[in-house]
């Protein structure tokens, strides 16, 4: 009997060997249910014979169908067509170079569900944060300019490094990376930026006079090629990220102490005096062929260079040689202040110009001379720009496909023909039908009521065939439905504002720490900014979980002759008004009028316009959370 069966068993084994690959099963298959999608990850098969992977799905755990048309070379996959509240089963198999499948992984299940806005924002931030983990060289901190279908690009954007350095704090606070791991990444980045060679040579340097080339090489960390310019605007975005790390990594251990020292060293080395042009502005760029001096052409007019001028004015070592540099920057403001789509604001066509500096600097309630004359602040200006950008897309004068109240956002991005700064308002308009998620994503703090629904629509509904806007690193860069086009790449300087501005909307994290930086404070003051938090003393960055109670403290000293301080505490984000009255209850002055986050504050008061006597100061506070109102009064005495 056994002899008769043996030829049959041998034949069966032979046929089995010819039909099935010997690839082992993928291990550790894990799934994460999303809103209408499922994210799968598994461990790489340790074999040189792996051509790719195939994912199978079933609704009954019996009938499985492959869900990826092409073999996957990565060990992750998003099932884009999984309906909410339905249970799905999955397994994964490796495929060898003979196109034979190996053993299947274990079967796992997931049930997608309708996310709340908070859950949706969590997901958007987490997937976008993955960009800065996967696109970064952990040894030198270089961040690829983009992630393409074939992987991170070799050319690295110094602006993306600035966004990436800041992103680590979000990852720490939300539990996506341990603080110890993140700070080592930051330290290695700053060590290279400080120790990397600088000089006038065409090759072999990171920059000159403390400034950095726009693009550096992923592996060497040096100038990417001879065409790359020394970029003042991109260096400033890098510096903002570095100075944020100076404040965030505030512990006394050796790593965080060195981070703070390196942050100071890198900023102090930047020669803003050298970069000052003949008209007193900051130069646009330099290349070795220009000789020792940068291009004698200034950045000016409302745009993303606000932060550059603030850093140039605030430098304690090599500031701009023109103390009135802000006047050069703002000289075109009267031409840019005009109505567009029913909104009156400082016009700049692409939305990124209304967002970049706001990633780090909290402009709520602080004003320069121009904004004081208009009765608004730059935060409100960006809100109006966001609404106007959306209104333009709703009107859609060029009749592009896919423009409407939930599909809008013109800014710099990839498009079907390359990369350009799309925009409307102010002019010249540059609108070719391309919409970028970073436009509403970077404006979430300004107008969450229109930006969050737009992001949700883009996540749910923007795709062309099997090419979806949403991917493993969040939103791909842009889409143009008139040309049936979805971008293939993710771009660092577009992912950064999405991640960081959503965090500012949710917790104010980046703003809170940047408000502590003495150089930025000094730059703002030299530019003529006053009001709000800038005229207050924030005792420290507040613990989000700390329970605070409303309190108006007694001014000190009291009585006083020239200057006194008024302490107060607000338990939630809200609107704060402090008014001063004489003893007969006649209003004399408004000491503070500002939107502030929860915290403990101290506001200064100068008595130069007051005579001796008793005065009453009143704090009036309206909570943003529930419109709850608090009010308190105290007396003070002026003695002259």
Radius of gyration based on Cα positions = 28 Å
Structural class: alpha+beta
Helix content: 25-40%
Major sheet attributes:
5 strands, antiparallel
Proportion of beta-strand residues: 15-25%
| Low-confidence blocks of residues | 1-18
Characterize the overall form: globular
Number of helices: 17
Question: What is the first-to-last residue Cα distance?
Answer: 119 Å
The beta-strand count equals 36
Mean pLDDT: 92
Oligomeric state: single chain
In short:
This protein is α+β, with helices and mostly antiparallel strands and 640 residues long. Helices cover 31% and strands 23% of the residues.
How would you explain this protein's 3D organization?
With 640 residues, the chain is α+β, with helices and mostly antiparallel strands. The protein is 31% helix and 23% strand. It contains 17 helices and 36 strands. The strands form 14 sheets. Strands 3, 4, 6, 7 and 8 form a five-stranded antiparallel β-sheet that branches. The protein has a four-stranded antiparallel β-sheet with strand order 33-32-35-36, with no helix packed on it. A hairpin with a 2-residue loop joins strand 25 (470-471) and strand 26. The relative contact order is 0.08.
